[in-house]
Write a structure and sequence with these properties.
The complex is a heterodimer of chains A (591) and B (114).
Chain A: H1 2-15, E1 19-20, H2 27-30, E2 35-36, E3 40-45, H3 51-65, E4 70-74, H4 79-87, H5 93-98, E5 102-106, E6 114-116, H6 123-136, E7 140-144, H7 148-152, H8 156-173, E8 176-182, E9 200-209, E10 212-222, E11 231-237, E12 240-243, E13 259-260, H9 265-270, E14 276-277, E15 281-286, H10 292-305, E16 310-314, H11 319-327, H12 334-338, E17 342-346, H13 354-368, E18 372-376, H14 387-403, E19 407-413, E20 433-442, E21 445-455, E22 465-470, E23 473-478, E24 480-482, E25 485-487, H15 489-566, H16 578-590
Chain B: H1 6-16, E1 24-30, H2 35-51, E2 56-62, H3 68-72, E3 80-85, E4 90-93, H4 99-105, H5 110-113
Parallel strand pairs in B: 1-2
Antiparallel strand pairs in B: 1-3, 3-4
The chains are: A alpha/beta (591), B alpha+beta (114).
């Protein structure tokens, strides 16, 4: 039972092609691990496309990183020239030679000196190669450019037979070989080397479109292995060769639910209180002078305060200019640069092709490992390429950033006259959060308005905010929304004043009416009082009349008593109260 | 009689040959005793005997024995005949079966052919 199991394990390892890592950035990714081990690989391309460099880096990396010594058989450049050429890339070939990790052999072919007199073969070359390999125990070899042999030897049939034998010889030697070849008119190589090297063919190109050159690499063929088939841009710089297989990224990146502050508290509030999502892509678009960079600077400042790393790609302004300008709105970016949290990469879009921009950005991102990347502005990249190319490039950039969980903040300059809700680069669909900055004109001035056009996956404000730049940074304010439309700035203030006056007038009017009512109330109350007083006096009069009448009756009665007394009546009781009787009499007299 | 490298050989040449223009130093590089090698050696000997009137010296170098010499002498094809002296240096590749070309390649004057 165990035996078949073992077989199952062993067979695939035999079948899968062993790969020899090149150590060159990105190349191992697109080849799925490196060049075919123990087999020759053809690298072809036009003049100056980087064949020799790629080949040499393969050897140097092999010697330094994988402990695989290598032989460089140069058919074009003398060894001394090679050493000095590669010294400028930081490769010390002499040192490697002394360590017996590298052997350089210059094969000089001078047709002038050669006279062909009879049958020959290239055993001499074989012996040289074999000797060089054996002296340092080489695992890798480069033949650069073996096609030169065609100019040296007139008998092509011998040469072709010998080349075939050479590649066979290299294979039996089990050495991983790179053979370079110059690009032909309609063929990959001028002399059809590809027919001998059938295992792996890599094509380098150096195209110039609109005066901007872009280097690209493509794996034409890789027998027995899956590989990336696209044309990948690559870069040659002071660190050598780097390929950026950016287009291989899919849409399977993780989505963080962590939020990061925008650096503007009011904007945070608008974005569901907490700000952007980490790892999302944010676009701030607007016409010139709407404050896109300022919003970016706020974001950078807030991130650096949290101790995060920011990489700022500026295509319009120099580093110092940005720092100076942002200081005017109270943001000190220089401190973050000094602390190493912020790095600027400034370049003109026309400096090189779009792909190269992407590659350099990719490289910078890998080196700096930022949490936040600012691209200011993306629209300027269009100077270097067409709209579709920009879109493709940006989608790959954003995909790459999302893969790495880096928050991307892009600004986009929309042209005046065009629709604001379309970006020039047509990348709105790539963006998670889109801040639209708008100039609101009116009342003889231009004011900035900001609103959130979209923000995926969060509740956000749908209102327009006016924002102003002051020495303390961006201030977001509510705009005036009334029957006259949205008002901002001075006209907003004027409108507010007008409203205040109106409301004051209204309240004064109400007060006036109130007072009038009060007054009327007093008058009515007075009238009531007067009426009541009249009524009371009438009542009093009535009572008086009644009293007088009574008195009168009484007086009459007394008079009759007195008369009776005088007539000698016998009732004397009425004499007890003579005074009262007198006053009543007086009253009676008045009436 | 001295065992010498290139420079002393020149010296020995000058001393051994009386005429200044008559000294030929020829090096034949071969790779093992192949048919081509043998043919080349035979052809070279014949041409030398016929055309050089004994004013020559031939060294046969087997690169299988001394592979390090291939680089210094810029040998690619074998057999290669290098005419080191007199100058200019000339290289003739092949088994030397084309006598005409060898003679031209060695700058042997037609007068001497007779």
């Amino acid at each position: 039972m165990t035996k078949p199991k073992k077989d199952v394990v062993v067979i695939p390892t035999i079948q899968t092609l062993q790969k020899c890592p090149t150590g060159i950035k990105g190349l191992d990714e697109i080849t799925g691990g490196g060049l075919p081990q123990g087999r020759p690989t053809l690298i072809c391309g036009g003049t100056g496309c980087g064949k020799t460099l790629l080949a040499m880096e393969f050897l140097v990396r092999g010697a330094t990183e994988y402990n695989e010594p290598g032989v460089f058989m140069s058919f074009e450049e003398p060894s001394i020239d090679l050493v000095s050429n590669f010294a400028s890339l930081g490769f010390d070939l002499n040192d490697l030679k002394d360590q017996r990790k590298l052997a350089l052999d210059y094969v000089q072919i001078d047709r002038e000196e050669l006279v062909d007199a009879g049958e020959y073969d290239l055993e001499g070359l074989f012996i040289r190669i074999n000797y060089a390999i054996d002296t340092i125990g080489a695992k890798r070899i480069v033949l650069d450019t073996i096609e030169t042999l065609f100019s040296g030897f007139s008998n092509e049939s011998i040469l072709r037979a010998e080349l075939k034998r050479l590649f066979h010889f290299l294979k039996t030697k089990g050495i991983t070989a790179i053979i370079t070849g110059e690009q032909g008119d309609k063929t990959l190589t001028r002399h059809g080397l590809e027919e001998y090297v059938a295992d792996c063919v890599i094509f380098l190109s150096h195209k110039v479109s609109e005066q901007i050159a872009t280097r690209r690499i493509r794996i034409v063929k890789y027998r027995g292995s899956v590989h990336g088939t696209n044309e990948y841009p690559f870069l040659i710089d002071e660190q050598g060769f780097s390929v950026m297989p950016i287009s291989s990224i899919g849409l399977d990146h993780a989505a963080s639910s962590e939020r990061v502050s925008t650096g503007i508290s009011r904007l945070d509030t608008m974005l569901g209180v907490k700000g952007y999502y980490r790892g999302s892509s944010i676009l701030a678009s607007g016409t010139a002078g709407t404050g896109k960079s300022s919003i970016a600077a706020h974001f950078v400042d807030a991130a650096c305060r949290r101790g995060e790393r920011c990489l700022y790609f500026a295509f319009e302004e120099s580093r110092n200019q940005i720092i100076r300008n942002m200081r005017s709105i109270g943001i000190n970016l220089e401190q973050w640069v000094n602390e190493g949290l912020l790095e600027f990469r400034n370049s003109r879009p026309s400096l090189y092709g779009l792909e190269m921009h992407l590659v350099t950005m990719h490289k910078a991102i890998e080196q700096f490992e930022p949490d936040i990347v600012i691209v200011d502005p993306i629209s300027n990249l269009e100077a270097a390429a067409s709209e579709t190319e920009v879109k493709s490039m940006l989608s790959r950039l954003i995909d790459m950033l999302k893969m790495k969980g880096i928050t991307a903040f892009c600004t986009d300059l929309t042209s005046v006259g065009g629709s604001l809700e379309r970006t020039d680069a047509g990348i709105s669909s790539l963006m998670d959060t889109w801040l639209l900055l708008q100039v609101i004109e009116g009342g003889g001035e231009r004011n900035r308005g900001l609103y959130i056009l979209k923000s995926r996956g969060m509740e956000h404000s749908n209102q327009v905010r006016e924002f102003s730049l002051s020495s303390e940074g961006i201030m977001l304010q509510d705009v005036y929304i009334g029957p006259g439309g949205v008002l901002t700035g001075a006209s907003k203030l004027a409108q507010e004043a007008r409203e205040k006056a109106e409301s004051l007038a209204r309240s004064q009017n109400i007060e006036y009416k109130q007072r009038e009512i009060d007054r009327k109330k007093i008058v009515i109350e007075a009238q009531i009082a007067a009426l009541r007083a009249g009524f009371e006096s009438d009542m009093e009069e009535l009572e008086l009349a009644v009293a007088i009448e009574k008195m009168h009756q009484k007086v009459l009665a007394e008079d009759s008593v007195a008369m009776g007394k005088a007539r000698k009546s016998d009732d004397a009781q009425t004499e007890i109260d003579p005074t009262k009787t007198v006053s009543e009499v007086a009253n009676d007299c008045k009436n | 009689m001295t065992v010498k490298t290139d420079l002393p050989k020149k010296a020995t040449k000058k001393t051994s040959s009386a005429k200044p223009d008559a000294s030929y130093l020829l090096k034949l590089y071969i790779a093992g005793q192949t048919t081509k090698s043998k043919t080349a050696i035979e052809n070279l000997n014949r041409i030398c005997v016929e055309h050089l009137d004994a004013k020559y010296r031939v060294e046969v170098i087997d690169l299988l024995q001394q592979p390090q010499l291939a680089e210094g002498e810029q040998i690619l094809a074998v057999p290669t005949l290098v005419k080191t002296l007199p100058e200019p240096v000339k290289r003739i590749i092949g088994d030397l079966s084309n006598t005409e070309r060898v003679i031209v390649g060695l700058d042997i004057k037609p007068d001497r052919n007779k």
